[in-house]
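Example 3.2
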Amino acid sequence: MSNPLSLAQGRQYLAIPGPSVIPDAVLRAMHRASPNIYAGELVDMTAGIVRDLARVARTEHHATIYIGNGHAAWEAALANTIAPGDTVLVPATGRFGIGWGEMARGLGAEVELIDFGKSAPIDMDRIADILRADKAHKIKAVLAVHVDTSSSIRNDLPALRAVLDAEAHPALLMADCIASLGCDRFEMDAWGVDVMVTACQKGLMVPPGTAFVFFNDRAADARARMPRVSNYWDWVPRANPDDFYQYFNGTAPTHHLYGLRAALDMIHEEGMVHIWARHARLAEAIWAACEVWSQNGAFQMNVDDPAHRSHAVTALRLEPPHGTALRDWVEQNLGLTLGIGLGMAAPDDPAWHGFFRLGHMGHVNGQMVLGLLGGIEAGLSALDIPRGQGAIDAAAAVLAKDGI
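Structure, written as tokens:
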């Protein structure tokens, strides 16, 4: 029975893995009248936005903007590089890897899906065997998700690049960084990633609506060999526009650009290295609490090895239906929203109610994480769910360490 005295009034805390918390500076930047889309401030600032997006991705190559969500970025990347009948290799570690493969199949590609399950990273030895067996180089791209938002698995992209190089395989390395960019360390050029896709609503801290595709010269060569690319998805005019409208193939996403400008200013003021370290420390605090809770009862982290855990999202489980019960209790009683267990079980399967996720990406700090963990502790207590004791102390000790 829920507590009749709700404490959910006040500012809600959306602790889901995207959309993430929007900074006040971004909200203020977007709260304005519609601008001129033909000349003036909006036009003048867009080239700088593109350059600063490339800085976040750590690339000297091309950055393009699409009006859409992460699925739009998936399709844009594929439309420019993969022709119908081409083969792509998809090493999946969660629902979003599978989803990108489904997108490729829908565009006419032959998809070789290797499903590593929901709790383990890509097995590089298995990928090496597949690439070694592909003597004719039928595989044109490897579609890898850096952080799968459903499972919270973080994959080793430099190791995947090393496998491609060791086998002298020419396939493009394409990375989904929708959950990870601006949270987990990612360095496109240094890691040898040919195409990277992301969206604005997670580490970039802007409401959903814009997506981005970054590509290097190897990918540009693949685009040049394509028999056709539709005008809308074609990244060539977006990367090298003669006229302002070509950045977007039409009307600009006006207010998203103002919000993105403010978010990028915040990101570069803090610095990418500090951002990565901040997310790592906050994630470590969350893991410390979760590991204590898991010492007694059915509380469990989805990813056992910290080396394979995302610094942006943590997938968890309880005995069903306690996952859903916990989410409901903290939202109704505390104003705290936790993420559903996406892709871990079918929605009509009773097991679905055992899974949930914590989003700790973008505009988050130590007191927010302690509030998130304290809310979960309160919910576990109210619902009388068995767990280990001392979780908040363990998290606080991590946050109290000197430096990051």
